[in-house]
Amino acid sequence: MTRVALIAHDDEKPEMIDLVREYEDVLSKFDLVGTGTTGKRISEETALDIERKQSGPLGGDTQIGAEVADDRMDAIVFLRDPLTAQPHEPDISALLRICDVHDVPMATTRTSAEYVLDGLAADGDE
Ligand SMILES: O=C(CO)COP(=O)(O)O
Question: Which protein family is named in the record (predicted)?
Answer without folding.
Answer: Belongs to the methylglyoxal synthase family.
